[in-house]
Amino acid sequence: MFDLLRSIFSGYAEGSTDTTQTYAKRQITKYLQQESKKFVSSQNYNILILFDKGSLIKSDADNIYNAITKFENHKPILLVILSSGGSAGSAYLIGKLCREYSDGNFNVSVPRYAKSAATLCAVRINEIHMGSLNWFRSYRSSNRRVTCLRT
Predict the structure, then answer these.
(1) What is the pTM of this model?
(2) Most buried one in 3, 19, 115, 140, CB count within 10 A?
C-alpha cells in the first residue's frame, strides 16, 4: 500500500514526468486488479474505469479502445464513470465501443457523477447502477435537451 501511495503522489505531483505518471497508472491498475478479485461478482465482467480529472477528450476513447481490445475473455462490460463531461463524440464512441465488445451486455456504474457529454457513454446500456448521492445529468445540445437515462 505504501508503494501505491508513493507512486500516486510522485506521479501526479506538480512537475511530475510522463514516466512517473505512467508508473503510477500501472501501480493503480495492479492494485485495482488485486482488490477486484476479492469480489465474486467482478469475475463476471470485464471492468473499465473512466475517471476524468479534466474533460472527456478523444484520447479517453483511444484509451478505452486499447483496454477493451486487450481483454482475453469475451464477457459483459461494466464501465465505471466519473466525469464532468467533455467531447460528445468521444463519449458516444466510448459507449459504442463498450456495446460492441460487451457480448450484448453493457452496464454502467456511476459512483458519484456523470455529467453532460459523459451521459452519452451510457446511451446503449442494459443497466445503470447509482446510489443516492449520484448525479447523472443530461446532455444539452444547442437549445435541445437530450436525456440519456432510460427508465
Answers:
(1) 0.77
(2) 115
